[in-house]
Amino acid sequence: MTTHEPAPARQPAAEIAVIGGGLGGVAAALAAAEAGRTVVLTSDQQVLGGQITTQLVPALDEHPHIEAPGGSSASYQRLRRALRAEYGEDNPGGGWVSRLCFEPQAAVRAIDSLLAPHVTAGRLRIVTGVRPVRAVREDGRIVSVRLRDGQGHDVTVAAEVFCDATETGELLPLAGAPWVIGSEGREAFGESLALPGGGHPHAVQSCTTGLLVEHRPGEDHTVPRPEGYERWRDSQPFTLEIAGWDDRSHRYRMFVDGPDGHPPFWTYRRLREGALFGTTDLALINWAGNDYADASLVHEPDRARAESRRLSLAFLHWLQTECPRDDGTGAGYPGLRPVPDATCAPDGLAAEPYVRESRRLAARIPVRQQDLEPVLGQARAANMADSGGLAFYHMDLHARIGHPRSAYSPTAPFQVPLSALVADAPSNLLAAAKNLAATQAAAAAYRVHHGEWAVGEAAGTLAAQAVARALEPAELLDEPAEVALLQRALVHRGVPLAWLLDLDPADPLFAPAHRLAAAGGLGGARRERLTAEPEAPCDEQDRAALVTAADQLAPGAGRAADHLPTDASWGEVVAALGAAVEELTVDTGGRRPAVPSGGRPSRSRVVLPSGLAGKLVVSCQALPGEPLHGPQFMAQMAVAAHSGGAAAVRINGPADIAAVRMAVPLPVIGLWKDGEDGPYITPTLEHAMAVADAGADIVALDGTSRPRPDGRSLADTIEALHARGIPVMADVATLEDGLAAAAAGADLVSTTLSGYTPDSPHQPGPDLQLVRALADRLDVPVVAEGRIATPVEAAAALAAGAHTVVVGGAITRPADLTARFAAALASTRPAPESQP
Ligand SMILES: CC(=O)N[C@H](C=O)[C@@H](O)[C@H](O)[C@H](O)COP(=O)(O)O
After folding, report:
1. Is the ipTM of this complex over 0.90?
2. Which end of the chain is more exposed for a tag (fewer CB within 10 A), N or C?
3. 714-723 and 735-743 are packed helices; what angle lies between their axes, rounded to 10 degrees?
């Protein structure tokens, strides 16, 4: 695509930044640009499209009503039309899993055709090949996001509103938004699809590296047998049978119908039907056989990527050599040949694994399984009054890591609630892809193509409206009058808010009907069916519900129905009430934030992460030379600490901090050990800034009276960090140090360095006396840290007045722990050998 820019040296700024170029990102950018806003859209890939391009699932997962006039938004319908126009065929692949299967290249061009007018108009800039590495925050909002390309060049995007449309919700941890991943656990919301007990953050759904193949009978394209082949063959297991949602096994054959009447495996996700175009078939292999669930893309990205590719090659090898042949003659189809695709599948394997589960915004009440399930006597799931769009797919949980059984639950046609797109903090961050505030179970129903598009489109429209009204997104959603205006903007761009299949976005009734329906206007017969049937009578309950909904949208609007005959049709009632709502809608003109226009609050407030009082912090550190040194190990250590109930983690060095930040939704206390003599814990301001840049929520500094190598005082160093809104933990050795550090502005004082300076007591256990003395004298929270070896000692530290307790080596240094046990045995006289 000629319109894409590589990471530019200059810094693009726009009203709205959409980070992530998958389907959610494309939909968000399109909606925001069509609302007239300036937009920067970034992608970590070279092309846009995510699921339908680089992740190689260009066979749309949809629902039975997708082609009904009101079954999806006007923009999604445009995308589908653009895809079909590439071929002049309704289903170019003829795959049976979807009504629209196509090649990734066609998707790249179709997306380009939707976005190109906005690029040409200068409203939209697309920057490819960059991934976010840092979000700069000020006063609870994001001011800019720094992105890095493959060569290490950075570009910074400044904007008013940021949409996270990345595939795994990467902006959430970078921006300090609360997030979750894996199963919330059944205890959290009583969902039957959740795993039993409390949270299982590790139980993330499988990913799949798709594979493009054609079939050349008589030729041999057998790929080498990859490492681990036998294990995967026997455990996945490799088979053309598949366990259905009904718990029965469904038997397929390669090129012919199976014994249970199922169509062939080959045409399942066929992307090009050769017979239509005078060429060969092109099929996508994305099957239970190559569903990879040994490691997650969030917790162990490198391993998951590498192994999911190997697994797909192993499955191909099995299809080529061992798969039972349809005619019963021997095994294997060696003529299956991996086909490279110029941008998406360089060696037949997708450029990126297909992501089923993302980090998700954590909300007090997320969208849950129960919210999407069928309701007795109704055609739809329970109405969401703050609807911003529609989706409909079952809750389809593929194998979760450590829990290989898939899980499934039906849904009824449901909506995208706008409240699930906003973070409490930062206030200008929106979820725009699979990262909306939904539980694992519910998110599994939004994750498919049209669901992700609907979330992105709602987020882009909300972002545009927030900019237009000079409100933060969350502020806007708190104002019913503003939500009404936002919903008006949505329906005017052809986004249905409720399920009314027979209303086309071009129908004049579309806008009023959807606004009234979302406000609760479907009360009678229309609760039981998905159609509006505007010509049909409006029964009493429908009429009463419409009147109440109209009053809800604009007080007094319901009176417009008083003058209508009792036998008025549903369409006539909706038209009259809709007109009254329009007339009575009060435009408050938005509410300007309490800052001068164009400017943002300048004084940074330093806010300590909440939830640390009385809690355990686990220090996960391994220095160079230690066996577990390396960001991937420390990220896993932090995941283990999180699973065990740590409230925060303490991490050494920018590389480890950056990795841990992306792996666990916990505050990170960052430090950087450097230097031999004197202060070595984050010795200079430069070290401290690098720690903050890597994403630490609190920076720990040497807080002793020793001179610092950069000649700055502790107070100066703290002031510089505070100017960036970063709280400081001073690591001290003595009471005097602690008093001086608090006076210098430290936000927390920790006993870390007691025993590591000449003037502090050298003792085997923790310095609880210092904890007590500091707690007696200081107003700032005191942290007990250093040589706490047992749970009893941790509890004693709290009792001595500590606000928070940090434990390191006793949890995270297996070599030291082993040495303790070994020493204990060595000093014990062995029991005399028992006599035979
Ligand atoms: C003195 C020093 O360099 N302390 C370091 C500070 O970050 C870490 O090596 C400690 O592991 C951490 O303080 C926790 O203490 P303990 O590992 O003793 O529970």
Report:
1. yes
2. C
3. 40
Amino acid at 28: A
Q: Is 835 inside any structural domain?
A: no
Ligand 1 centre distance from Cα of residue 178 (Å): 27
Task: Please indicate whether residue 344 or residue 781 has the higher confidence score (pLDDT).
Answer: 781
**What pTM, to 2 d.p., does this model score?**
0.88
Q: Does 594 have pLDDT greater than 60?
A: no
The CATH number for 639's domain is: 3.20.20.70
3-state DSSP of 618-639: EEECCCCCCCCCCHHHHHHHHH
Verify that 291 and 390 share a domain, yes or no. no
CA 774 to ligand 1 center in whole angstroms: 19
What residues contact residue 834 under an 8 Å CB cut-off, 6+ apart?
none
Give the whole-angstrom CA distance, residue 575 versus residue 618. Answer: 61
Q: How far apart are CA 807 and CA 829, in angstroms?
A: 31
- Average pLDDT over the chain reads 93
**Of 693, 711, 775, which Cα lies nearest the Cα of 742?**
775
262: containing domain = 211-338
Place of tokens 């810094």: 11
How many whole angstroms separate alpha carbon 58 and alpha carbon 102? 6
DSSP, collapsed to helix, strand or coil, labels residue 78 as helix
User: Are 727 and 701 in the same domain?
Assistant: yes
Clarify whether residues 624 and 557 are in a common domain.
Answer: no
Residue nearest to atom 5 of ligand 1 (CA): 752
Q: Are 546 and 516 in contact (CB under 8 A)?
A: yes
What is the number of domains present in the chain?
4
Using the 3D structure, point to which of 469, 499, 529 is the last residue of a domain: 499
pLDDT tens digits, 491-531: 999 999 999 999 999 999 999 999 999 999 999 899 999 99
Q: Specify the ligand 1 atom closest to the Cα of 810.
A: 19
* Strands 395-397, 407-409: pairing kind: antiparallel
Residues with Cβ within 6 A of ligand 1? 619, 621, 650, 671, 681, 752-753, 756, 785-788, 806-810
Contact by Cβ (8 Å): 619, 649: yes
The three-class DSSP label of residue 130 is strand
